[in-house]
């Protein structure tokens, strides 16, 4: 039986090899930290429901990608149909932080004419003693690109929920405002099976907003 | 005990008059020394022997750990004997009959001899196919490569703990397994600078290391990559992998249309589930017993085995996949349920793979892919940005449909050409046979004529008239020619 959801968002998770993309996703979707895991060869897929407001559920389709550069010719195909993305770097690996710019460029080229709402994620924040990137400089970089910044740890389950749900909320707001619209032939956002109750409350919210204007 | 001879030696030096006794003593001394030395040598030898035993015990232990997997298909005793014979031939580098090897391989492979058998199959493959110079790996020894440093070091190190992470041989951090894996991957990355290291290779290397020594594994990795051409799919542009994904999709389209439609409707492309199958040769998801069996056939036939296994896997589970109603459940099935099937199902798949032949289709689809790519490029140049998207989308859909139709036609045409070509070949061989028959007949005729000439000379002139009469008779009735010709 398919769960009831208002919208379905497609998210993509990118970043250098071994920054912990798969571990972050698995913590979020399976609720546990995978001690051992295979490298992602190509793309992998996960999904989970998120309740952003009581009774309002969003289904997240999360695409995990291989970090090794040569796999981009395959992962590229999945950018276009994503509405949101988590761009990961490892706070103990400066190189992965320096590559953030390159990742953004790479997606920009292949996502047109659409856009991806990105959040910058400094991962492995439990390893604070080995930190090579300060919170301050990461925040600065994120702001420069108009992204939010959040630090997470899949091992200690820090901010994992928050990273995904905040991004989901932001996208939801954009959809509600009409800045992102559902389009034929684009998989980024899909509207789901909406029971009457939820539908009517949506209408109420909409009309209220209209009154305020 | 050891000091005694010395004491005797020291004390005996000063006494001069008792020479006889001294001599006796020195003789004793000498024999004692001899004994001591002898025993020392024996001791050393025993120690060495002990070490050897220990080493072989360690090796046995590690072999046991390495080969600790459940086999798919049990090997009968008679098959074991045939393999023994074949492996003897291997040392002599004798070319074996392909059909024979095929049958034998189908019967099964004992895992304790698997490493040797792979090397035997590689040798046989090399005897049948010679690599053109251009594709040959540089001639540098494994030992030489190990002395160098690789730029891929980081990428390799990072994957050591992620390759067969639950297998006892590879799980220990920087244990024997991981060290061998590192050496092998490093050496390969130095040998093949274009490919270097690509994720996925570590699994292939790992499977090899479970069945043979590091150096042998290096040789076999070279064989898979260069001789059989697996290295293409790991190249930085990954073009070849894209083509393979297209080929798999087309195979499904042609042979399992319902399944193809079901997957298409749910937007599941092969790159989503089959990329690891190709890049790790099934080793990252499937059980080792199954993977080893797949490797058996790969060593015999090469890259197309991956397609056969993929096709056989998907088609064997077709009903179950069709029952999955949405994207998530299909992906879950392909990712988790499919690799988890039981041994008898795996055996069936392997048997099926032995009977498949799809090389012609694969070739045709590859050609198609290139044609399609060219067309896509041309059409993308032709269209302008200002055109409304909808219109383009519609045109695109139409073109896609057209393309599919054309591709089918092309395929039919290909098949037709193939049959025509084989017909032509048949005719040509028949023609040459006929020609040679004609030539022999003509030679025969000349020989007969010569004989007739000779006979004519030997015969008296009055008999000749008779003979001519006979000859005329002969010309009218050629069936008698041979009989008369033989008479002197």
UniProtKB/TrEMBL annotation, chain B:
Coiled-coil-forming residues are 43-70, 389-458
Q: Which UniProt keywords apply?
A: Coiled coil, Phosphoprotein
Which InterPro entries does the entry mention?
A: DUF3350, Rab-GAP-TBC_dom, Rab-GAP_TBC_sf, Rab_GAP_TBC_domain
Give the Rab-GAP TBC domain ranges: 108-302
Mind telling me which SUPFAM superfamilies this protein's record contains?
Ypt/Rab-GAP domain of gyp1p (SSF47923)
Name of the gene this protein is made from: TBC1D4
Q: What is this protein called?
A: TBC1 domain family member 4 isoform X8
Region (Disordered), start-end ranges: 1-24
What is the native source organism of this protein?
A: Acinonyx jubatus (Cheetah)
Name the Pfam families for this protein: DUF3350, RabGAP-TBC
């Amino acid at each position: 039986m398919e769960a009831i959801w208002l919208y379905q968002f497609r998210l993509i998770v990118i970043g250098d090899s071994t920054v912990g993309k798969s571990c972050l996703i698995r913590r979020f979707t399976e609720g546990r930290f995978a001690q051992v895991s295979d490298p992602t060869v190509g793309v992998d897929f996960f999904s989970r429901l998120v309740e952003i407001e009581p009774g309002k559920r969003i289904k997240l389709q999360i695409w995990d990608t291989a970090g090794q550069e040569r796999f981009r010719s395959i992962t590229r195909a999945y950018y276009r149909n994503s509405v949101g993305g988590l761009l990961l770097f490892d706070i103990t690996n400066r190189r992965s932080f320096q590559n953030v710019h390159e990742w953004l460029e790479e997606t920009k080229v292949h996502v047109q004419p659409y856009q991806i709402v990105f959040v910058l994620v400094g991962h492995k924040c439990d390893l604070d003693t080995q930190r090579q990137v300060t919170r301050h400089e990461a925040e600065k970089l994120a702001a420069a690109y108009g992204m939010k910044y959040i630090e997470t740890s899949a091992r200690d389950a820090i901010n994992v929920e928050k990273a995904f749900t905040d991004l989901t909320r932001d996208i939801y707001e954009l959809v509600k405002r009409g800045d992102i619209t559902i389009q034929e032939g684009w998989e980024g956002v899909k509207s789901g099976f909406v029971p009457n109750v939820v539908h009517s409350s949506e209408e109420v919210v909409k009309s209220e907003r209209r009154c305020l204007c | 005990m050891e000091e005694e001879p010395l004491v005797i030696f020291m004390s005996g030096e000063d006494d001069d008059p008792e020479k006889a006794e001294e001599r006796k003593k020195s003789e004793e001394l000498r024999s004692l020394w001899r004994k001591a030395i002898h025993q020392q040598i024996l001791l050393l030898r025993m120690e060495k022997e002990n070490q050897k035993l220990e080493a072989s015990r360690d090796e046995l232990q590690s072999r046991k750990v390495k080969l600790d997997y459940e086999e798919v298909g049990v090997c009968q005793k008679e098959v074991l004997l045939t393999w023994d014979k074949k492996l003897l031939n291997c040392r002599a580098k004798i070319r074996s009959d392909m059909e024979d090897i095929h049958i034998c391989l189908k019967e099964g492979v004992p895992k304790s001899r698997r490493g040797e058998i792979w090397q035997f199959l590689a040798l046989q493959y090399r005897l049948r196919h010679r690599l053109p110079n251009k594709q040959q790996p540089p001639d540098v020894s494994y030992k030489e490569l190990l002395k160098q440093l690789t730029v891929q070091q980081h990428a390799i190190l990072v994957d050591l703990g992620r390759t067969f992470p639950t297998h006892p041989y590879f799980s220990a951090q920087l244990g024997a397994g991981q060290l061998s894996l590192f050496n092998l991957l490093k050496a390969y990355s130095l040998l093949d600078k274009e490919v270097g290291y690509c994720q996925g290779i570590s699994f292939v290397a790992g499977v090899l290391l479970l069945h043979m020594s590091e150096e042998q594994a290096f040789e076999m990795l070279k064989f898979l990559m260069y001789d059989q051409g697996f290295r293409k799919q790991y190249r930085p542009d990954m073009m070849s992998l894209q083509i393979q994904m297209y080929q798999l999709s087309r195979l499904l389209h042609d042979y399992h249309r319902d399944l193809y439609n079901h997957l298409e409707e749910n937007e599941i492309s092969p790159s989503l589930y089959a990329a690891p199958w190709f890049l790790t040769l099934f080793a990252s998801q499937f059980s080792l017993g199954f993977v080893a069996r797949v490797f058996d056939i790969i060593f015999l036939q090469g890259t197309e085995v991956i397609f056969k296994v993929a096709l056989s896997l998907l088609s064997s589970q077709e009903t179950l996949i069709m029952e999955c109603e949405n994207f998530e459940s299909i992906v879950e099935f392909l990712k988790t349920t499919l690799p988890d099937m039981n041994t008898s199902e795996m055996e069936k798949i392997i048997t099926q793979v032995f009977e498949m032949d799809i090389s012609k289709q694969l070739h045709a689809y590859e050609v198609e892919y290139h044609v399609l790519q060219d067309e896509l490029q041309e059409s993308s140049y032709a269209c302008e940005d200002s055109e409304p998207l909808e219109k383009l989308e519609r045109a695109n859909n139409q073109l896609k449909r057209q393309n599919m139709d054309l591709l089918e036609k092309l395929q039919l045409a290909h098949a037709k050409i193939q049959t025509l070509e084989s017909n032509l070949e048949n005719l040509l061989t028949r023609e040459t046979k006929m020609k040679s028959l004609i030539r022999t007949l003509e030679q025969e005729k000349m020989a007969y004529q010569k004989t007739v000439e000779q006979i004519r000379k030997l015969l008296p002139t009055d008999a000749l008239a008779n003979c001519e009469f006979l000859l005329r008779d002969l010309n009218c009735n050629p069936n008698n020619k041979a009989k008369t010709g033989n008479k002197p």
